[in-house]
Specification:
Order of helices and strands: EHEHEHEEHEEHEHHEHEHHHHHH
Number of helices: 14
Number of strands: 10
CATH architecture: Alpha-Beta Complex
Shape: globular
Structural class: alpha/beta
Strand order of the largest sheet: 3-2-1-4-8-6-9
Number of domains: 1
Length: 301
């Protein structure tokens, strides 16, 4: 990190009945090597202990709905004070060096937003499949930026609140109209004394290998719930496609059979991972097929 440079970072967590996850997310933010962080929790009127637990770590806890796009915009535009803004979900944890790496990247490159490597947690078969699948997406059009220069985020109007699902792809496209999106490197560090090290390791991942990544807790993966969520998000896809046009090069990849089933897994030598892990590859294609069915059925009530 550059000397004498300590910008404020505003991290927004969107929640809805997340008492099971919220504390680990907040601990991971408090445990960052960079300490100049403002934590903002934007809750969607939870009826559990989400807000009560959040208030142990920050006094900036608000209610906002009806969807996560509105929650994110409220926290990142209306309530934040940082030079940079970031959003995470409550079931995510930040590797302890992540924010330091984000600041260093933003100060040394001309990018105005960042993709961040994401590691799926869990020891059951489909959690391992999801971890394997997600590893192919970093920095591609399937990924979505999480860390932004606040002024640029405001310039593009934040998230499109008419969408719930593809708004992550939509914000990337808006950002790309005025600048570039970088990708944070995954670094290894000795973080044996990190408070969440054991929690991560018991869920199938060696935390020290991903000290600058996001850990996404899908340890309780249930296939039916996963497909239900994907089906819900798919309902906004037509709005997104209509906004940018089905001939748009990113949309052609995001919704095209070739790229979603083959291209993203083969490009840049990544196909070698498919050959090395045939059982995970089989499970990944099964999930891709089921999600594709949900996409085709999105207009069926």
């Amino acid at each position: 990190m550059q000397p004498n440079s300590n910008p404020l970072i505003s991290i927004v967590i969107t929640t809805k009945n997340e008492e099971k996850n919220i504390e680990n997310c907040l601990i991971s933010i408090k445990e960052q090597t960079c300490k100049n962080i403002e934590i903002i929790v934007v809750d969607n009127y939870s009826d559990d202990k989400t807000k009560e637990l959040s208030l142990k770590y920050t006094d900036k806890v608000y209610d906002k709905g009806p969807e996560r796009s509105a929650q994110r915009n409220y926290g990142m535009i209306d309530m934040s004070s940082g030079k940079y803004v970031m959003f995470v979900d409550a079931d995510m944890m930040l590797g302890p060096y992540l924010i330091e790496m984000c600041i260093e990247h933003m100060q040394n490159y001309n990018d105005i937003a960042l993709h961040i490597p994401e590691v799926i947690l869990g020891t059951n078969y489909f959690s391992k499949v999801r971890r394997f699948e997600r590893s192919f997406y970093d920095g591609t059009v399937i990924d979505g930026a999480r860390f932004f220069d606040k002024e640029k985020f405001i310039e593009v109007g934040g998230f499109d609140e008419s969408m719930s699902g593809p708004e992550d792809w939509d914000i990337d496209k808006k950002i790309k109209q005025i600048g570039t999106i970088g990708l944070i490197d995954t670094i290894s560090k000795d973080i044996q004394n990190w408070k969440l090290n054991e929690y991560i390791s018991t869920r199938g991942v060696k935390a020290s290998r991903y000290a600058s990544s996001i850990f996404h807790n899908e340890a309780d993966f249930i296939l039916s719930d996963y497909l239900k969520k994907k089906g819900y998000y798919a309902k906004s896809f037509d709005t997104y496609i209509a906004k940018w046009g089905k001939e748009d090069k990113d949309i052609s990849k995001q919704f095209g059979l070739w790229y979603r089933f083959f291209g993203v897994f083969l490009e840049n030598g990544k196909f070698l991972k498919l050959l090395a892990h045939p059982l995970l590859t089989f499970g990944m294609y099964f999930l891709r097929f089921m999600v594709g069915v949900k996409f085709l059925m999105r207009k069926v009530k």
